[in-house]
Amino acid sequence: MTDVVRVIRQSQGTEDSISLQQQREKTRALAENLDADLIDTVDLNNHSGFSLFRKDPGDERLDSHPEVQKMIEGLRAGQWDYLIAHDDTRIARDEFYSVIQYAALQGDCEFQFVSDVPDDRLTFRIQRIVETETKAKEIQKSKAAVEHRREQGYHHGSPPFGLRFDANGEYLVKDMDEWPTVERVFTLREEGLSYRDISDKVKVISKSGVGKIVRKNREMYLKRMDSDHPAVSTAE
């Protein structure tokens, strides 16, 4: 008796040219060629092929899918003789492939694919190398851009509350919609109010936000404030 489990998965987006229906038909034909008596199906439809190796914990991930977890348990237990798919990337598109492969080895389950896949998984390796090199170039460009901004004295990062970038996106200037709130925060602080009390009065800023204004970014605000403001005279 030959038992088979097949994996059906299409990558998210439009770059995947192998339809779900094609995969279902061709993997069934492959199972029949293997004289399968039982065919179990893990049909993931349109789902990411990446796992925690490449994605954040909160993202949709292959390794967190309950059907995939159940399949791995079955592989370890020796439930199937073959795991079949259209090609290796249907099983996983990152290092999680090795996790599934190891589970199959534990249960003496062999991989079979509709399309020819090199034993050394050359397709996967080239894909990862290209992605890694592309990402490295992007990071290098980003670092160069940051360094250029710093050399020119431009602000880097998101503007703090009450400030915005000028028309050229280089220097910080007052955001006149929020700036009055900044001045009021400093006034209330000069009057001796706590961060919490200030937050309760101004409404639009949290306790931690008040702390960022009067402590973390204090100098940034004071140098843009009118000289007759109490906080400026106190600083002097």
TrEMBL record:
The keyword Transmembrane helix does not apply. Gene3D superfamilies: Resolvase, N-terminal catalytic domain. Keywords: Plasmid. GO terms for molecular function: DNA binding; DNA strand exchange activity. The keyword Kinase does not apply. Residues 4-155 form the Resolvase/invertase-type recombinase catalytic domain. InterPro entries: Resolv_N (IPR006119), Resolvase-like_N_sf (IPR036162), SSR_resolvase (IPR050639). Transmembrane segments: none annotated. This is Resolvase domain protein. It comes from Halorubrum lacusprofundi (strain ATCC 49239 / DSM 5036 / JCM 8891 / ACAM 34).
